């Protein structure tokens, strides 16, 4: 199939352009993607500084996703979402596949195995579009196991027309009232604070700020090297902190760590 837009796709693009900033935009924007890409979820949200994600609109294939998955994500598990973690690094925006933004050990992390795969999803593509005041618009499309990963032709199409798709997303989300201005945001403490406070109040253990940071990064799917790079410290220093963390918690693996703190998700 040609990568060039057909007459019907040009019509869909026109409809999406006309609908920017209106309640009809989400449906027409989704139709523009659906002309070339298959997906089981289509979610539009905002990532704003210091706030959990805010869901702007969504479509989920009926009966294909664990019923509580979306609420769990918006309440807490977003902290483990590679796209959420990557939001400030996507300068200028872009189209990204999950594997391109995920930490190096994400696909062996307990979060991925228990929550992501537990939802029946196998692949994800996201658009990230910077907004004013530091916010980022995010469009997420996921595939379930029966559909398999996104195909090369689909990714090629998305990347070819990324400037248009991202501009539409930016324009639309920029016209909506940010949730913090609408007074609808509930602030949740950073994952590092949740880990450190739980260790102190429940486990009666004193974790240093660095140990709590490393615990959060390990849970998100970072190796020692990746965590060290994120924190801008030496890998050997990171290893020492991780050994001290595991010794204090009397554990020996990432799975054990997840078991101690998974209720924080």
UniProtKB/TrEMBL annotation:
<dbReference type="InterPro" id="IPR000792">
    <property type="entry name" value="Tscrpt_reg_LuxR_C"/>
</dbReference>
<dbReference type="Pfam" id="PF00196">
    <property type="entry name" value="GerE"/>
</dbReference>
<dbReference type="InterPro" id="IPR016032">
    <property type="entry name" value="Sig_transdc_resp-reg_C-effctor"/>
</dbReference>
<keyword id="KW-0805">Transcription regulation</keyword>
<protein>
    <submittedName>
        <fullName>Transcriptional regulator, LuxR family protein</fullName>
    </submittedName>
</protein>
<feature type="domain" description="HTH luxR-type">
    <location>
        <begin position="200"/>
        <end position="265"/>
    </location>
</feature>
<keyword id="KW-0804">Transcription</keyword>
<dbReference type="InterPro" id="IPR036388">
    <property type="entry name" value="WH-like_DNA-bd_sf"/>
</dbReference>
<keyword id="KW-0238">DNA-binding</keyword>
């Amino acid at each position: 199939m040609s990568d060039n837009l057909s007459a019907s796709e040009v019509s869909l693009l026109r409809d999406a352009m006309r609908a920017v900033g209106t309640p009809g935009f989400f449906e027409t924007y989704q139709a523009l993607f659906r002309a070339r890409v298959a997906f089981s979820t289509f979610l539009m949200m905002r990532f704003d500084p210091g706030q959990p994600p805010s869901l702007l609109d969504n479509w989920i294939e009926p009966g294909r996703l664990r019923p509580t998955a979306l609420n769990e994500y918006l309440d807490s598990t977003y902290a483990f979402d590679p796209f959420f973690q990557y939001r400030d690094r996507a300068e200028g925006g872009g189209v990204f596949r999950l594997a391109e933004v995920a930490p190096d050990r994400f696909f062996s992390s307990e979060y991925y195995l228990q929550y992501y795969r537990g939802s029946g999803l196998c692949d994800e593509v996201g658009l990230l579009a910077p907004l004013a005041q530091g916010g980022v618009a995010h469009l997420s499309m996921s595939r379930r196991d029966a559909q398999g990963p996104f195909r090369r032709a689909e990714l090629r199409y998305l990347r070819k027309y990324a400037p248009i798709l991202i501009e539409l997303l930016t324009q639309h989300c920029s016209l909506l009232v940010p949730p913090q201005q609408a007074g609808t945001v509930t602030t949740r403490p950073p994952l590092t604070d949740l880990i450190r406070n739980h260790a102190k109040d429940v486990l009666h253990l004193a974790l240093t700020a660095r140990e709590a940071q490393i615990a959060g990064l390990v849970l998100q799917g970072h190796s020692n090297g990746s965590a060290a790079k994120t924190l801008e410290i030496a890998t050997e220093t990171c290893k020492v902190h991780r050994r001290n963390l595991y010794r204090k918690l009397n554990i020996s693996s990432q799975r054990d760590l997840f078991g101690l703190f998974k209720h924080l998700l």
